[in-house]
Amino acid sequence: QVQLQESGGGLVQAGDSLRLSCAATGRSFSRSTTMGWFRQAPGKEREFVAALFRSYGRAYYSDAVEGRFTISRDNAKNTVYLQMNSLTPADTAVYYCASDNSIILSSLRTAKNYDYWGQGTQVTVSS
Asked: pLDDT at residue 28 above 80?
């Protein structure tokens, strides 16, 4: 079993930056591990934010965060990061990290395809 724990959320002002971390325990990242970040705002469905496809694959982003957010991973630390810059109130949500060892490229933007999830960390951006 894999346990994921997010950290780094908080209350910031519009234009600020935050870096979220997601530490995985129970199993080390493998070459096939895809790591993703999703978010869910009140009353809305969970939406894709970013993902790193497999161990050394490229990063993918939603249109809403492209150019502002950067996903990265440290395989030695079993940790994935989400650097969020130029935050706006629209970015306010609970942010979740997710992992899966068998996801395919065409499926990485869909939450139901990930097997493991963290508990989430709240990000609130004030105007």
From this structure: no
